[in-house]
């Protein structure tokens, strides 16, 4: 028996076999969903997407637990032969996020679909989180130290690029929940200047500081010769120098995409009627929450080489700045959902105020 079974592990460790196994498992799960649920839930195709992705979330949680030594013997061959980049600190942290946060979101959205309730807000938060996770992960794999180790199993990540785009289009097409506010309340709220809205003023200040920090860290990873940048990358966040390239990709996405959006958010908090802000603030909140969790955790994770780990003497300042960085978008999304009157399409009264300023 031993002689007969010896070739099996070698066959199963082939990257192509691993990729085909993953495809077959997903196809089988999709078939089970169809025969068990019938066609009723298939009226919303996102139901199938969330069920399948919830399965992959469980797999990611198993990967992260196994890489951290809590369990063993489940996915060692797949990770070693198929996706060795999941053994990095960043890979482990995004697997934790997918296996806990995304899994919880999938269950909540599946339950909402079953009860015929709206899941639009949860979906937009998930959309931003998943897009940020997969973009940083794929780009880091392509340009980082593991670019030479890519195998056919890497192609299993491609649906994670296409599915969020399609799902995002469907989520934005879903009807919004109508806020229970009158035109009088909307006009009254939109007549207030920024100094009359202290909470919004504080939020604008926080977003300005976030934008400044975003620009600074972008210059740091672009090898700015300033002394402050040199000191920061060696004494405060040496993880930005890690050759895996995930932190560098993350900071560049922050600088070229998040920074302009921060400016738009400040604009939307100053001038009334920016009806696009509530939806996009949820996408923004999900993206930054995932990115900061992965970045902060990877900086402190023991799988990161010691020269690139955050020094212990700056732990508190590092944690404070990165937690505040993640907190700003969450507060913005909460503010937009809690009191949306300021962001509704401009009323005649607010238009009249704008003409007076002109």
UniProtKB/TrEMBL annotation:
InterPro entries: EXPERA, TM6SF1-like, TM_Tm6sf1/2, Znf_C2H2_type. Keywords: Membrane, Repeat, Transmembrane, Transmembrane helix. Signal peptide: none annotated. One of its GO terms (cellular component) is endoplasmic reticulum-Golgi intermediate compartment membrane. Coiled coil: none annotated. It is a multi-pass membrane protein. It is found in: Endomembrane system. GO terms for biological process: lipid homeostasis; regulation of lipid metabolic process. Its main location: membrane. Residues 43-168, 199-333 form the EXPERA domain. It comes from the Eukaryota. The chain crosses the membrane at residues 16-39, 46-65, 89-112, 124-144, 150-169, 201-222, 251-270. Belongs to the TM6SF family. PANTHER family: TRANSMEMBRANE 6 SUPERFAMILY MEMBER 2, TRANSMEMBRANE SUPERFAMILY 6 MEMBER 1/2. This is Transmembrane 6 superfamily member 2. It comes from Otus sunia (Oriental scops-owl).
């Amino acid at each position: 028996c031993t002689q007969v079974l010896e070739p099996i592990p070698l066959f199963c460790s082939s990257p192509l076999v691993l990729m085909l196994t993953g495809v077959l498992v997903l196809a089988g799960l999709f078939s089970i969903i169809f025969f068990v649920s019938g066609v009723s839930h298939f009226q919303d195709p996102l139901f199938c997407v969330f069920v399948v992705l919830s399965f992959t979330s469980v797999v990611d949680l198993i990967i992260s637990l196994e890489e951290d030594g809590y369990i063993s013997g489940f996915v060692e061959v797949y990770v070693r032969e198929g996706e060795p980049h999941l053994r990095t600190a960043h890979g482990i942290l995004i697997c934790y996020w997918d296996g806990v946060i995304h899994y919880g979101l999938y269950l909540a959205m599946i339950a909402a679909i079953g009860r015929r309730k709206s899941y639009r807000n949860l979906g937009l938060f998930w959309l931003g989180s998943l897009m940020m996770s997969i973009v940083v992960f794929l780009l880091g794999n392509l340009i980082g130290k593991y670019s030479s180790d890519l195998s056919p199993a890497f192609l299993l990540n491609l649906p994670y690029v296409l599915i969020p785009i399609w799902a995002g289009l469907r989520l934005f097409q879903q009807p919004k929940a109508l806020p229970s506010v009158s035109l009088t309340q909307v006009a009254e709220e939109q007549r207030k200047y920024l100094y009359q809205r202290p909470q919004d003023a504080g939020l604008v200040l926080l977003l300005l500081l976030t934008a400044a920090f975003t620009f600074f860290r972008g210059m740091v990873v672009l090898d700015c010769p300033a002394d402050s940048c040199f000191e920061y990358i060696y004494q405060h966040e040496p993880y930005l120098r890690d050759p895996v390239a995930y932190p560098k990709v993350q900071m560049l996405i922050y600088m070229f995409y998040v920074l302009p959006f921060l400016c738009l958010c400040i604009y939307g908090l100053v001038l009334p009627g920016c009806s696009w802000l509530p939806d996009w603030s949820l996408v923004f909140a999900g993206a930054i929450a995932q990115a900061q969790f992965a970045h902060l955790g990877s900086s402190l994770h023991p799988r990161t080489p010691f020269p690139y780990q955050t020094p212990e003497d700056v732990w508190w300042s590092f944690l404070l700045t990165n937690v505040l960085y993640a907190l700003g978008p969450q507060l913005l999304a909460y503010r937009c959902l809690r009191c949306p009157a300021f962001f509704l399409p401009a009323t005649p009264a607010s238009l009249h105020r704008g003409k007076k300023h002109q």
